[in-house]
């Protein structure tokens, strides 16, 4: 029986995929095999020794201590693309909000007083301050062309916009999913210089913290609209507010309210709505649950942020998996343990990702616990686990 600890409300569509005869799910379980989270922070939480995996029902994992878990051989799973459409739709709404002064006009209208005739007169007198512009022919710069960035870029093309993208890590597969009308910027500064709108779609890591800083805001047009539906810390808010005050930037539309931007007439800050749709929550829950099941039941890794994708078909009922440091002779040492125990390896798959590697070993006979313990004791092995014979299939 596997025990799954949920630290946030997880969509029933996902939890229903955990068979009751094989899984116990709850928000106060002790000694869990895996943890499921959405926004709950694990940075100050003691992760029990029993935990074998952490699943995040969403794309960003800045609420999870990935480095600490990696050192313990614990994969962290996320759900790239599962909420991409929801975020894309909100970004498109942000383009309209930023180009037509809709929130400012709405605030103006809702605070009108007097008779209908007086209100009508006030509207005619005041609407000039909300004159906007149309999207066709304008240039959208998309920073980061992952699942969300690609959808945003393609949707903007469909709206008649010119789109330029920048992503030094764009994969060939990702490029195939982009409209041929999306042009490539040679640098971030080149993108900023030509864009009427700039939308950021990168994860929050050390390299992207404060990515849009004072120098990069200065490189933008003074008529530009900056959109941030990724993570708050990617944008230097102090630099943005200063640019808005000086007229160096037209508007800022984001999903992250703060005291720095609250009430500013050129800021539209929403209540972190990017993935807040029923469909996105279901998609994320289903995807992360399937990934946790595949890992716990078969040792497969798909969409881990710290370990490589490794999901070989099971060749025998007897499987051992281990997370290990990506160093020379590791496979030889693992195989040597089985050889000395007189056990035949039917298949062995090893993949690496940076300093980490993951090894799957299928054997022709059952693996004694003592042999598994010998593998776990190898210097550089972070985790070794026997996998039960298959019982369920996704």
How is this structure best described in words?
The chain is α/β, with parallel strands linked by helices and 394 residues long. It is built from 13 helices and 16 strands. It has 3 domains: 1-80 and 278-306, NAD(P)-binding Rossmann-like Domain (Rossmann fold); 84-269, NAD(P)-binding Rossmann-like Domain (Rossmann fold), CATH 3.40.50.720; 307-387, ACT domain (Alpha-Beta Plaits), CATH 3.30.70. A 7-stranded parallel beta sheet has the order 8-7-6-9-10-11-12, sandwiched between helices. Strands 2-1-3-4-5 form a 5-stranded parallel beta sheet. Strands 14-15-13-16 form a 4-stranded antiparallel beta sheet, sandwiched between helices. Helix 3 crosses helix 6.
Task: Provide a concise account of the structure shown.
The protein is an alpha/beta fold.
Strand content: 15-25%
Gap between N and C termini: 17 Å
Q: What is the highest CATH level, the class of the largest domain?
A: Alpha Beta
For the largest sheet, list the strands in their spatial order: 8-7-6-9-10-11-12
Tally of separate domains: 3
Q: Please identify, by name, the CATH architecture of the largest domain.
A: 3-Layer(aba) Sandwich
Number of helices: 13
| Rg, Cα atoms, Å | 25 Å
Task: From the structure above, extract its key features.
394 residues, alpha/beta, Rossmann fold, elongated, Alpha-Beta Plaits, single chain, 13 helices, five-stranded parallel beta sheet, seven-stranded parallel beta sheet
